[in-house]
Amino acid sequence: MTATESIDFLQAPAELDQQLDDLILPEWWDGTPAIPTDRYEVDAGGQADLDPAGDLAAEMQRVYDEVGLVHVRNTGLTELADMRTLAQHCLPGEMKYEGGSNPRGALEANVFEVGAPLTAHLHYHHEMAYVSKSTRALAFLCKKSLPDRGATYFSDGLASTEYMLSTELGQKLKELGVCYHRNLTDREAFKDKLEVGVYNHWQLSMDTDDSTEAEAYARERGLFTEWGPDRLLKTRYYCEAFEYDPVTDRNLFYCSIADHGMWFDGWPLVMHLPHNDRPLHMTFGDDSEFSRDELQQMVSQYDRFGIKVDWRVGEIAVFDNFRFAHGRPGIELTDGEERQLGVILGPKYDRVGTYRDKW
Ligand SMILES: [Fe+2]
Prior knowledge:
The chain has helices at 15-19, 55-67, 80-87, 157-165, 168-176, 202-206, 211-220, 292-303, and strands at 41-43, 69-73, 106-108, 111-112, 122-125, 133-135, 137-144, 152-156, 178-184, 224-228, 232-239, 242-245, 250-253, 280-284, 306-309, 316-320, 324-328, 340-345, 348-350. The chain is α+β, with helices and mostly antiparallel strands. It has one domain (15-348): Clavaminate synthase-like (Double-stranded beta-helix, 4-Layer Sandwich), CATH 3.60.130.10. The strands form 6 sheets. A 5-stranded mixed beta sheet has the order 1-2-16-7-18. Strands 5-17-8-15 form a 4-stranded antiparallel beta sheet. A 4-stranded antiparallel beta sheet has the order 10-11-9-14, covered by helices on one side. Helix 4 (157-165) crosses helix 5. Fe (ii) ion (FE2) binds at residues 125, 127, 326.
């Protein structure tokens, strides 16, 4: 199927709201890191060496190559610009954020906000799995931390791939693939209005005010498009649930319910809406719905292989977007508390799907 053929723009069925009335919540991990901490933690000795030719850079690169996740502690850094320099020791490049679902403000040059409300839990996900141009890696930079909350969790993608392939659901996903349904709102339609049901406006996602350009941009990224009422841009992306990873030379699981309406279960201004009015929906690639049990399995399988990363100011994590999914519980702040992570997106790549001989 090509992006110029016509398709039915599905809506989430009403029965989904009853099925998901009891929320499916992530547990994140089983209390023991799926990979021993000493394999991915690097101590910068209180004063991180920002020299790309230094020992710290070499050690970060070694850990990144071996594990696909590096958590650098004890850096002594406080400025995002310095943390970005540190991340660049092993981040294999950077991309400009575009075509994404969520609006990200810039904190520094090419360092972005997480782009999601702090109070919402963010299910495990691989970044930008819902478009044909995705990112190879990411870095998180800790600008403000809380002493006892605000951890990020990473889930081992090699282990989850292995596990998924051993299940009926994994085989079904391998055969059918998935479809990501997104509704991008029109910024003009929400001028001076409370942004109820808004994830992102297409003007921000596609970086243009021109609707024709926005549509062309979406199609370039493999999306089917249709305009709805109030210049709502509806997009659909059919793809495989696994993706070939050239580093490990195998097809890895690359799909999560973060692109389902459940993503908004904790989002202010969206969580109260029925699934049909939420900005995201996700089905199997033959347009059939996930059952509640299948959605629960999608969540639990990542929890099985979780790692908890607690943050202190100055710490950074660089991770491979194939080899790790990431997520976090919602965070409630009390007076005077702040928690802020900056995000850098690694190099952009074109999704290729899977190869028959790489399972
Ligand atoms: Fe993310």
